[in-house]
Specification:
The chain is α+β, with helices and mostly antiparallel strands. Helices cover 21% and strands 34% of the residues. It contains six helices and 15 strands. β12, α6 and β13 form a beta-alpha-beta unit.
Amino acid sequence: MKLVSHYHGNETLRKSFMQLAFDIFGIDFESWHELGYWGERYIPFSYADGDRIVANVSVNELDFIIEGKSFKALQIGTVMTHLEYRNKGLSASLMNHVLDMYEGKYDFMYLFANASVLDFYPKFGFEELEEYQYSTRISAGQGGFDLRKLKLADDLHLIEKIVYGRVPISKTFSTNNSFGITMYHILNIFTDHLYYHAEEDAVVIFTKENGAVQLYDIISTAPVNIKNIIDCLGDIDKIEFHFTPDDSNLQYQCVPFKRDGALFVKKGAGLEFPRFVKHPFLSEA
């Protein structure tokens, strides 16, 4: 076996990686790659047995915005091992390689672990941290500017322009340079939940469940007035945010966020991860 990385230009290794990701997680990277969204900021570090990818730890290079300041962040994801190659220490070896490669180069390293591996990442210096979700109550049926439902077949260029030129959604806590991850979510998860707010020139991503809106993202190339967005969401009385809002004109309730698994963070010397924040859903790898 050999350790390989930066191989998305190698068709054989890339397709083997994609097959492993599909087999383990059901992740389909094909259209994401074909449309050019697998950029230089997404890097798999893998063990290859010949031309077959058998274990992997990927990194996403992005930035945190914390209280208006930018910090280098590294999100780890797609940690996987082929069933035939497990219990050989391959994932641990790749994790140590990544940590060595990026030691001192990033302010924060972090990942989202599922419930079955919560005891794995503390061995590498990661600390489990609690997230918090914000919600607000509003008066139903306020009306406002109409939203236009987007279709990928017709509106992909518009979506790309806004995603690649976006400004951080929150100065309190958000991410930047995460366009590749965001486009994966748009292509594979939220295809039927994309809307355009022409007045704010924003892509709005939300679902409605039991009279409440799950607001996943507001993507724009300039700061928006969230109240203008909320006013056009229709007959609802509650909005739950899947990012950290910082519009002081709204009254928020903040409660611990429960996910299937946990957020783990490894901090640089002298740095603290902010409390009472929610990592943006569309930046999760």
